[in-house]
Amino acid sequence: MIDFSLTQEQQMWQSLARDFAQNKIGPIVQIIEESNNLEMEPWDFCKQVFYKGAELGFTSLMVPKELGGVGGNCIDLAVVLEEIGAVDVSIACSYFNLTAAMSLFVSRAATQE
């Protein structure tokens, strides 16, 4: 039988991502969704959220530790993205694109420099 329980570290990522999504992403999503301004640039509102997510380790989650990343795995990333996606799928998709692509580039082509 397969055990689908989250590890303590994954539970920590889940809690961190849930708090981040609800308290940082949620208010921005509400502003964007309630606006009737077709000239609005969502990136102007989301930029600081992406920087904060990067500070929390979301964008380096799957980068190996020896290359300066968190050293997580696909399940860790899925747990984080699930919590972000519960608040806003488009931001979760953007984090996925950044995290998955960047970690592959870094882990396969990076040097210590």
Task: Please provide a written account of the structure.
26% of the residues are buried. With 113 residues, this protein is mostly helical. It starts with 7 loop residues before the first helix and ends with a helix. Helix 1 runs parallel beside helix 3 and helix 3 (74-87) runs antiparallel to helix 4. The protein has helices spanning 8-34, 42-55, 74-87, 89-109. The protein is built from 4 helices and no strands.
C-alpha end-to-end distance = 44 Å
Number of helices: 4
What helical percentage do the residues reach?
A: 55-70%
Q: Biggest β-sheet, characterized?
A: none
Q: Strand percentage, roughly?
A: under 5%
Q: Please, what is the average pLDDT?
A: 88
Question: In short, what is this structure?
Answer:
Helices cover 67% and strands 0% of the residues. With 113 residues, it is an all-alpha fold.
Keywords:
globular, mainly alpha
Produce the secondary structure layout:
Layout (H helix, E strand, L loop, with lengths): L7 H27 L7 H14 L18 H14 L1 H21 L4
Helix pairs in contact: 1-2, 1-3, 3-4
